[in-house]
UniProtKB/TrEMBL annotation:
<feature type="compositionally biased region" description="Polar residues">
    <location>
        <begin position="88"/>
        <end position="98"/>
    </location>
</feature>
<protein>
    <recommendedName>
        <fullName>YD repeat-containing protein</fullName>
    </recommendedName>
</protein>
<feature type="region of interest" description="Disordered">
    <location>
        <begin position="88"/>
        <end position="139"/>
    </location>
</feature>
<feature type="compositionally biased region" description="Polar residues">
    <location>
        <begin position="116"/>
        <end position="139"/>
    </location>
</feature>
<feature type="compositionally biased region" description="Basic and acidic residues">
    <location>
        <begin position="1"/>
        <end position="15"/>
    </location>
</feature>
<feature type="compositionally biased region" description="Polar residues">
    <location>
        <begin position="16"/>
        <end position="26"/>
    </location>
</feature>
<feature type="region of interest" description="Disordered">
    <location>
        <begin position="1"/>
        <end position="26"/>
    </location>
</feature>
Length: 150
């Protein structure tokens, strides 16, 4: 493992007990000038990429977009997720690679509802059969302390 002067890990290596290169891995971490994680690359012992991520940060250092990729060459897959945040630093939405978006609503700083993307195919064999999930709602309770015996 290698560490920067500020204590952040720059890369680490793990060797499989068998010594087989494709079962070993090395991970390299990338940071911006402020020391915030902006991505990583993971390779097996033979130098083939296993996975990688690139994080786009907003002015406050929160992840606004992340691109994740797995594999390499023609067999690689990649997906990008986007997030938005409110002034209190709470996630208000997450947009998925297919363009669908989940929304999060808060009251008094607590998550009140989480709404999944508008519709999902419930039966892939019948595209006309759609389910429309309802938002998830939490009920809040308040407790009043009473003296013992009252």
């Amino acid at each position: 493992m290698a560490v920067r002067a500020d204590g952040r890990t720059t890369h680490e290596s793990k060797t499989h007990p068998s010594g087989q290169a494709t079962l070993s891995q090395t991970t390299r971490y990338h940071y911006d000038a402020a020391g915030r994680l902006t991505g990583y690359e993971q390779h097996n012992g033979a130098g083939q990429r296993i996975s990688a991520a690139i994080y786009q940060l907003d002015a406050l250092g929160r992840t606004s977009e992340e691109t994740l990729s797995y594999g390499q060459g023609s067999s690689a897959i990649s997906a990008t997720l986007a997030q938005s945040w409110n002034a209190d630093g709470q996630k208000t939405s997450q947009t998925y690679p297919d363009g669908s978006t989940a929304h999060y609503h808060y009251e008094q700083g607590l998550l009140k509802t989480a709404s999944p993307p508008a519709s999902q195919t419930s039966n892939p064999g019948n595209p006309g059969n759609q389910s429309h999930p309802a938002p998830i709602t939490w009920q809040s309770y308040a407790w009043t302390a009473r003296a013992a015996g009252s």
